[in-house]
Design brief:
This protein is mostly helical and about 120 residues long. About 50% of the residues lie in helices and about 5% in strands.
């Protein structure tokens, strides 16, 4: 398994798909990186040479925010929203949907199991 920025990418998948296993790299970014480095998107990740892996590492670290840096950046943004007590920060703090989704139905994965309220008239 080739190791790119400390992440083991699957070696039996196409390079274009294998790079998406890195946090912050989607399909479009994967295509851009492969095109920039002049690699074949249809080749398998196990066929990468050490030189190719080094070039991918260098490109990801210099030109893009991925993995640990991206996770840290997102956490800092959420902490900032919670700290200034804005609406989105309150929603994060309460574990509710942040972007205007409905909560009457759905949103159970974030809110938890439904609790019945005592003495509620329907």
């Amino acid at each position: 398994m080739p190791r790119v920025i400390g992440i083991d990418i699957p070696d039996n998948k196409r390079l274009e798909v294998s790079l998406t296993y890195i946090y912050g790299v989607g399909k479009e970014l994967s295509k851009q990186i492969i095109e920039k480095l002049g690699l074949n998107k249809d080749m398998r990740a196990r066929n990468l040479t050490e030189d190719d892996i080094a070039r991918i590492n260098a490109t990801l670290q210099t030109d893009y925010v991925v993995e640990g840096d991206l996770r840290r950046q997102i956490q800092n943004n959420i902490k900032r929203l919670v700290g200034i007590n804005c609406y989105r920060g309150l929603r994060h703090r309460l574990g509710l949907p942040v972007r205007g989704q409905r909560t009457r139905t759905n949103a159970r994965t974030r809110k938890g199991k439904r609790k019945t309220v005592a003495n509620k008239k329907i």
